[in-house]
Specification:
Order of helices and strands: HHEHHEHHEEHEEHEHEHHHEEEHH
Helix content: 40-55%
Number of domains: 3
Strand order of the largest sheet: 3-7-8-9-10-11
Distance between the termini: 71 Å
Length: about 425
């Protein structure tokens, strides 16, 4: 015979709510790749679920309050939240993974798209290899955003649970954001430096390669930036070729790896408190050959490319053949100095001909685009969110962020409000 069990003791709702409150307070990882691909939220991978429960339990003990058991903590984390620990998988391909995991019947439905995808991947890599060998006045550049670099960063537990000031390679978030305006302004600065460095009497051609992120690279604002650069500098033609989604490994990945190793080495000896420390680490990351050049940008270095785009034109969606332009499918974009009010595109690396779009047809389009004055995107530094401001101030007050760094950096950003 089975023994009858009495009712299981119920957990105090206040204890359950304390778990939810603790989990909600853990800062989420910000990534343009993740936002585009999933609704799942991500937190830093420096801790395990057991670590989180241990920290939660210690917090409750400091408050002299009862804590939930690890089983209850894990259940709430896994069942009530859509959260994972972040492991970067930028170049994992959704289509390749879907095909690999499909059964035979599903593979039959995917095979045409899958084979075309692999063909485009191979053609894009062949195209880049060919472009790199071109020595006829053509300059090839690859650009990519490195993962967000948070400050403060270290092994101190308080750093993990505090909203952080994100440092995005060249600038911190009080100077600019991470959109087309910032990327375009950086690219324009690069073109200016390249033309000055080359210093050739003949016009040069430039080919850019990047990943396929529409929000930052594949858009009308970056295209406008290229058109403006043609008229402003000694450049004849600019092409932008997009590497295939999920297969966008490029030369920049090695640079990112070297920088990340340098940061990891530094963290063994102490935290990173301010963005300037990242600049120094990047400059010294390469042990042999020419050091990496770091351009620290301020809000004054970013231009309003949306206003510039309005000066260039407003038709970016209908080609001269009257067919709609599907930006998602574009593989190559091109602008030429001899066609100052048009752009050209291909939707496949196997296309032999470019399609043409005229961005403006009015008489005003005959005006010199290079005479347009660039307008700053921001009139002042950008304030932090209230939550981030409060969290960083708390770290400073507790001297977890040392006072010299408060005086050097944080004091100034707290005054932005």
């Amino acid at each position: 015979m089975r023994e009858k069990h009495g009712k299981q003791p119920t957990v105090d709702p206040k204890i359950k709510e304390s778990v939810r409150k603790f989990i909600r307070a853990i800062p989420r990882i910000e990534s343009h790749y993740l936002r585009a691909q999933t609704k799942r939220e991500y937190i830093e991978s420096g801790k395990s679920l057991a670590d989180l429960h241990r920290d939660y339990k210690e917090e409750r003990e400091r408050q002299r309050l009862p804590a939930a058991h690890i089983v209850m903590f894990n259940r709430i984390f896994n069942e009530e939240f859509n959260i994972s620990f972040y492991i970067p998988k930028k170049d994992q391909c959704d289509l390749c993974e879907s095909y690999k995991n499909a059964d035979e019947e599903e593979k039959k439905k995917l095979v045409v798209a899958y084979n075309n995808h692999l063909n485009q991947k191979e053609l894009s890599r062949q195209e880049k290899d060919t472009d790199k060998k071109n020595q006829n006045g053509t300059y090839v550049a690859v650009y990519d955003l490195q993962a967000v670099m948070p400050v403060p960063k270290g092994l101190v537990s308080s750093f993990y649970y505090t909203s952080k000031l994100n440092y995005c390679f060249f600038w911190n978030e009080t100077e600019g954001k991470r959109g087309a305006i910032e990327i375009g302004s950086c690219v324009l600065s690069y073109i200016s430096m390249l033309v000055e460095k080359v210093n050739k009497p003949n016009e040069i051609d430039i080919i850019f390669y990047s990943d396929n992120c529409c929000g930052q690279q594949k858009n009308k604002y970056l295209l406008t930036t290229y058109a403006y650069a043609l008229q402003k500098f000694n450049v004849r033609r600019i092409e932008h070729k997009f590497l295939i989604c999920g297969h966008s490994q490029n030369e920049g990945d090695n640079i990112h790896s070297v920088i990340e190793k340098q940061i990891s080495r530094h963290l063994k000896s102490g935290p990173i408190y301010i963005p300037e420390q990242y600049s120094t680490l990047i400059r010294t990351a390469k042990k042999n050959g020419t050091p990496y050049r770091v351009h620290d940008l301020t809000n004054e270095d970013f231009f309003d490319l949306k206003l510039l785009q309005e000066e260039w034109g407003n038709n970016f969606n209908v080609a001269v053949d009257r067919k709609k332009v599907n930006w998602h499918d574009i593989k190559i974009l091109k602008v030429e100095k001899e066609h100052p009010h048009s752009f050209f595109f291909k939707t496949s690396y196997s296309d032999t001909e470019f399609k043409k779009v005229i961005v403006k047809k009015s008489k005003k389009s005959q005006e010199d685009f290079s005479s347009v004055q660039l307008v700053p995107a921001y009139s002042k530094k950008l304030p932090l969110t209230d939550a981030k401001n409060k969290a960083l101030q708390s770290l400073c007050e507790k001297n977890i962020i040392k006072k010299p760094y408060y005086e050097l950096f944080y004091k100034n950003i707290f005054d932005l409000r």
